[in-house]
Amino acid sequence: MSQTIAFQMPVRPAGAAVPPIADGDRKPLTKKEIAGDHPTWCPGCGDFSVLALYYKLIEKRRILHEKVTTVAGIGCSSRFPYFVQAHGAHFIHGRALPFASGISLSRPDLHVFAFSGDGDAFSIGGNHFSHTARKNIKMTLVVMDNWVYGLTKKQTSPTSPIGFKSKTDIWGAVDQPINPVKQALATGATFIARTSSTNPNHLLQMMEAALDHDGFSFIQCLSECVEFFPGAFDPANPRKGGKFNEIPKEHDVTDEAAAYKLASDPFPGYFGIFYRASRPTKNTLEAKINADAQAKVKGLLPWQILQKTFERMR
Ligand SMILES: Cc1ncc(C[n+]2csc(CCOP(=O)(O)OP(=O)(O)O)c2C)c(N)n1
Ligand code: SF4
Ligand SMILES: [Mg+2]
Questions:
Q1: Cα 171 to Cα 253: distance, rounded to the nearest angstrom
Q2: Does ligand 2 have an atom closer than 6 angstroms to the CB of 169?
Q3: Of 120, 127, 160, 164, which is best to mutate to test ligand 1, by the most ligand atoms within 8 angstroms of its C-beta?
Q4: Nearest-atom index, ligand 1, CA of 74
């Protein structure tokens, strides 16, 4: 007789943090165990550092293989999930967030990370960025912002500065670039930080704080495209004669207007946590609806649930 197992959605109490490691007997993952395919990025690409710090985060916070999922759209940066030995998806251009939202809402026991490029997140995926932020769906989005479309070999992106010469703006970009921190604030993100791939300690700190946030956490990470926009972030890199200005300690991270003002400082501006607010997540707000719906179909197989739905619709 064949055995059938009904799918039961794990239920985590609303607002409760994802447990880092469920089984005390299991050793934390090593970098070797988390590393997937060998990265195919150009030597010197800033994205290497983001990947290395993600491995470190998983190792340091003792996150289990089956408790983390890595989602991305399309772009050089979006190749990310291939390089992580855990569940994840390399999805459609600009659509990482809807995919990640589905995972987050249906599997509250997972840490959901999305990695995007500036084109992926703010151009083709710009609408999803706004809606995921306003809905406060629990996940972390890291945008590896290189101010250019890297994969498709140098087109102007929504964050490219005015004057940037590319294949789409051969005389230099004329359009006002977006400010990702201000955009995130305006659309209702509850955790907003900026960092740089050239400052690994800071990047790890920001990733840890985002991981601990119960809601939509957004990190803008400057990550140089050495091939199509070399030197873009030198003014933010002390090793290249620039300045890495951390957000002043006295900044009140719950003050939205103060965060907006700080984010308006011209490049290289400030780095750190601009804003952190506590607002119920969609996950929490819908937890009871989901639990009630699940209770009604308890013990049924997926096809039986579908059958019931069809019958109800007759
Ligand atoms: C629907 C669709 N439109 C356009 C493309 C072509 N395309 C692939 S990646 C990309 C932009 C990548 O830029 P970005 O998101 O900044 O990532 P990067 O490569 O710079 O890391 C574009 C336009 C596509 N794959 N799918
Ligand atoms: S093209 Fe640019 S973004 Fe893409 S891998 Fe090379 S350096 Fe990195
Ligand atoms: Mg880019």
A1: 40
A2: no
A3: 120
A4: 9
Q: How far, in Å, from the CA of 48 to the mean position of ligand 3?
A: 14
Indicate whether 235 and 265 sit together in one domain.
yes
In a shared domain, residues 274 and 195:
yes
Q: How far is the CA of 48 from the centre of ligand 2 (A)?
A: 10
Residue spans of the chain under pLDDT 50: 1-12, 22
Against a cut of 0.85, is the pTM above it? yes
pLDDT tens profile 31-58: 889 999 899 999 999 999 999 999 999 9
Domain that holds residue 300: 281-314
Ligand 2 pocket check for 227: Cβ under 6 Å: yes
Q: Is the CB of 47 under 6 A from ligand 2?
A: yes
Residue 136 lies in a domain: yes
DSSP per-residue letters across 83-126: GBSSEEEE-STT-HHHHHHHHHHH-TTSEEEEEEEHHHHHTTTH
